């Protein structure tokens, strides 16, 4: 018996990009003291206020089947939130509640791509992007964003690959680079999308983590609301990663069909989790700023350490403008990202993600998640920098 090509081909016969993370977790389970700067998981847990509301909702009976598109009050709240943030008219009819942002990524590509269609995405990008596209039977096509351009996507590079494609996936603020796509970048993307009749899928799950500049949703650009599907989530904004609560904002016709997909896949999100998300949204912008504050502090710590390197300056970075990550350029060490990360784990018990996990455009880089308390973060990053500088001295 053979399994389907669709499922056996999700990783195209290669790695899913998480090998070093799995190895670090295995070492930790064996009792090794590993400092993890790998995944985007807050070092605080979901606020007890939210958990208490979730618990009470379950006790009050919200443990049965919930409405598949999402409970009306939550769809209304998400629509209002998006409209207030972007200025684009948005109603509950434009909202589907999903089991986290990852389910939304899958569903949006399912909605706009047929089997065999070419689906573009920006490289570097989140490690699941190409696998999500393949899981839908489409063909992932990376569009490199060069470190020399500050990882800002170039419209001409997208246009060169856009002919005959069906969709483009972007992510700003960006995981893994921390870059926020500029207005000029997004306007260029919008022109290419319209000129080539593409759907745009915009992953905006880090939109509450803005350190520098502004976040602009491309759905707000002229002519884009009818061809853009936006992905949002409670995971990063409210430290609710395990609750698996996300959403899609899309034209009403697309939402109608996406509800059919939800009916035939996970059949909705538990009601008590939706109630908790609705409550969490009422906590307001100040609460969201509190959730984001540790990453702002650690960004400042990291930039200070980078500026204080010795004359060798083996590590360089495009300063992150948003999100909870830094992408560090370690090419001066002579190692690629995989080799550097493996040696760092073996020799210093610090786990980071190789840039290659996020696409060839990030080769020779590592991604550092700013997700441990300030003092240990400072110490770990200093070790990373010292290790990198020692390699350059060794080579010379």
UniProtKB/TrEMBL annotation:
- Which InterPro entries does the protein's record reference? Aminotransferase_I/II_large, AspAT/PAT-like, NHTrfase_class1_PyrdxlP-BS, PyrdxlP-dep_Trfase, PyrdxlP-dep_Trfase_major
Q: Which reaction does it catalyse?
A: L-aspartate + 2-oxoglutarate = oxaloacetate + L-glutamate
Q: Name one Pfam family in it.
A: Aminotran_1_2
Q: What class of enzyme is it?
A: transferase
- In which domain of life is the source organism classified? Bacteria
Locate the Aminotransferase class I/classII large domain: which residues? 36-381
Any single GO BP term? amino acid metabolic process
Keyword annotations of the record: Aminotransferase, Pyridoxal phosphate, Pyruvate, Transferase
Presence of the UniProt keyword Mitochondrion in the record: no
Query: PROSITE patterns annotated for this entry?
Result: AA_TRANSFER_CLASS_1 (PS00105)
For this protein, the Enzyme Commission number is 2.6.1.-
Q: Which family does it belong to?
A: Belongs to the class-I pyridoxal-phosphate-dependent aminotransferase family.
The name this protein goes by in its record = Aminotransferase
Which organism does this sequence originate in? Thalassovita litoralis
